[in-house]
C-alpha cells in the first residue's frame, strides 16, 4: 500500500497529520482559528473555507479521512494526474464548506423565526417542541424545567428563563464549528466510483467484496437519509458529505465529457 503512494496523496497526508499534531500538542488555538464557523458568527473568517478541511476533531476523525484518501487516492492520481486529483480534493473540500455554510444559514434563520414566534406568544407546548427538536444542545435537566414551565405557563420568571434558554441555543448554532476533510474525501469517493465502477473492493465491516459503484451508491443514499433525518444528537456534518459527493460528481462528469483534457 505505502509503496504505491503517489506524490499528491503523500503531501496531503503529511499536511493533515502535521496540522493535527501541531493543533493538538503545540498550538491548540489553531482549532479556534481554522475551524469553519457560521458566516454571521463573530469567529468567522473567510479563510476558514479553506483551512477547516485540514483540521480534525480527534485522532479517529483524522484516521478515517486519511485512510480513505490512502485507499482511493493513489489510483485516481495515476489515472487523472496530480493536477486534477489536487483540484478535485480542493474544489470538493472548499465547495462542501461553502454549501454547508448556506445550509447552516437556512437552519439558523429557521430557528430564529421559531424563537421569534415563541417570544411573540409564549407557550409551554411550543417551547417543549423546540427543546425536543434541539435536544442535542441540552443537558437532561432542561426537561425538568419544561415540566415546571408547563405547570406555570403565565409565570414571567419561567417565560424569561425559556427565552434565555432559546437564545442560548441560537448562539450555540451560530458558534458551532465544522472541521474535517470529509467533503473532499467524498469527492474522491464518487470520482473513484464513476471512473472505476466495477472495481471490486473488499470491505472490512462486513467482510465482503462489493463493486465501487454500489459502495458509492450506498454512501450517497445513507448521506441523503441522514440529511433528511436531521437528528439533533448527530454531530456529523452530513450535508457537507453530500455536497462533496455532488461537487465531485459534477467535476468528473465534465472532465469525462472533455476528452481532450481528461488524461
UniProtKB/TrEMBL annotation:
Instruction: Show the GO MF annotations.
Output: peptidase activity
Question: What protein family is recorded?
Answer: Belongs to the peptidase S54 family.
Membrane-crossing residue ranges in chain numbering: 12-39, 59-76, 88-106, 184-205, 212-229, 235-255
Could you tell me the superkingdom of the organism this chain comes from? Bacteria
Keywords associated with the record: Hydrolase, Membrane, Protease, Transmembrane, Transmembrane helix
Q: What is its main location?
A: membrane
Which portions of this protein are annotated as coiled-coil regions?
A: none
List localization entries: Membrane
EC number(s) recorded for this UniProt protein:
3.4.21.-
* Pfam families assigned to the protein according to its UniProt record, in alphabetical order: Rhomboid
Q: What is this protein called?
A: Rhomboid family intramembrane serine protease
State the Gene Ontology BP annotations.
Answer: proteolysis
Q: How does it sit in the membrane?
A: Multi-pass membrane protein
Residues covered by the Peptidase S54 rhomboid domain: 47-105, 169-253
Amino acid at each position: 500500500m505505502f509503496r504505491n503512494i503517489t506524490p499528491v496523496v503523500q503531501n496531503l497526508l503529511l499536511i493533515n497529520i502535521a496540522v493535527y499534531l501541531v493543533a493538538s500538542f503545540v498550538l491548540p488555538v489553531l482549532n479556534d482559528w481554522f475551524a469553519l464557523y457560521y458566516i454571521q458568527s463573530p469567529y468567522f473568517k473567510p479563510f476558514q473555507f479553506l483551512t477547516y478541511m485540514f483540521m480534525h476533531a480527534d485522532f479517529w476523525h483524522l484516521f478515517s479521512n486519511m485512510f480513505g484518501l490512502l485507499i482511493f487516492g493513489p489510483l485516481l492520481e495515476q489515472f487523472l494526474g496530480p493536477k486534477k486529483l489536487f483540484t478535485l480534493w480542493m474544489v470538493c473540500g472548499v465547495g462542501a464548506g461553502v454549501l454547508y455554510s448556506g445550509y447552516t444559514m437556512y437552519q439558523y434563520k429557521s430557528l430564529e423565526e421559531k424563537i421569534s414566534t415563541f417570544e411573540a406568544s409564549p407557550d409551554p407546548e411550543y417551547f417543549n417542541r423546540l427543546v425536543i427538536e434541539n435536544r442535542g444542545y441540552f443537558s437532561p435537566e432542561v426537561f425538568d424545567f419544561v415540566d415546571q414551565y408547563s405547570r406555570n405557563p403565565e409565570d414571567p420568571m419561567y417565560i424569561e428563563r425559556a427565552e434565555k434558554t432559546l437564545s442560548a441555543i441560537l448562539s450555540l448554532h451560530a458558534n458551532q464549528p465544522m472541521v474535517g476533510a470529509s467533503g473532499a474525501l467524498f469527492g474522491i469517493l464518487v470520482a473513484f466510483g464513476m471512473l472505476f465502477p466495477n472495481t471490486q473492493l473488499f470491505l472490512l465491516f462486513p467482510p465482503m467484496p462489493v463493486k465501487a459503484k454500489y459502495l458509492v451508491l450506498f454512501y450517497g443514499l445513507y448521506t441523503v437519509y441522514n440529511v433528511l433525518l436531521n437528528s439533533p444528537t448527530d454531530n456529523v456534518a452530513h450535508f457537507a458529505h453530500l455536497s462533496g459527493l455532488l461537487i465531485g460528481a459534477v467535476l468528473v462528469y465534465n472532465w469525462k465529457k472533455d476528452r481532450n483534457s481528461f488524461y
